[in-house]
Specification:
The strands form two sheets. This protein has a six-stranded parallel beta sheet. Strands 6-7 form a two-stranded parallel sheet. It has a single domain, classed as TIM Barrel (Alpha-Beta Barrel), CATH 3.20.20. It has helices at 6-10, 27-36, 51-61, 75-84, 96-105, 116-124, 140-147, 164-171, 187-192, 195-208; strands spanning 15-19, 41-45, 66-70, 88-90, 108-110, 129-132, 155-158, 179-181. The chain is 42% helix and 15% strand.
Amino acid sequence: MTTTRFEDLLGATRVVPVITMPDAASAVPLAKALIAGGLQVLEVTLRTERALESIERIAGAVPQAVIGAGTVNTPQQLRDARGAGAQFIVSPGCTDALAAAAAEADGAFLPGAVTASEILRLMEHGISLMKFFPAETSGGVAALRSLAGPFPAVRFCPTGGISLARALDYLALANVACIGGTWMVPPDLIACGDWGAITALAREASTATRLPVAA
């Protein structure tokens, strides 16, 4: 349904920072800090007034970043995010109107699904990689392991309440392509501009979840 697959944007990335931006001035240094730590696929949630401006700044100033918009709940939000430079769109769920807007706007689309019926609806739209949110309170690893049986062709990006230790449990599942997390972008470090500490957290996440190199 879209010209770009989220899988293609991911490359070898297995962790996507989920960022809530308090102000746009922090956007570029934060993106650079995460990339320096090995995380280049970044999701900025549309939960603050400066989110779209933050996406626009990163898209314009940090070409190494694969920048996306999260918490996209309406077709207009989707169009606004694409206009700001978002290369991918993430939604906690999906409606027919949102799916149609995603198809019209092109780009990669990662909609959310938790139940079997929600997964079936997304499959009808030709979608096989889905966000699983909120992961920890929706059954977590056990739920995703159970969903692998009836949906062998579907893969997930679980997000919500995941720590680095839990990330490894999720990534051990064959039907998990990547995970979304916030632990490497804590609000206090963003607020004080401690980019070195954020780079260290990003490097820890990137190193711990890196795919093994084939012999």
